[in-house]
Amino acid sequence: MRRIGAAVLALALAGTAIGTAAATASAAPGGAARAAAACPTGWGSGVKGSPDSGAVALADIRTGRHDCFDRIVFDVPDGGDSLGYWVQYVDQLHQSGSGDPIPVIGGAILEIRVAAPSYDPETGGVAYPGKVAKPLPGVNISGYRTFRDTRFAGSFEGETQIGVGIRARLPFRVIQLPDRLVVDVAHSWT
Question: Which one, 55, 72, 171, 188, has least CB within 10 Å?
Answer without folding.
Answer: 55
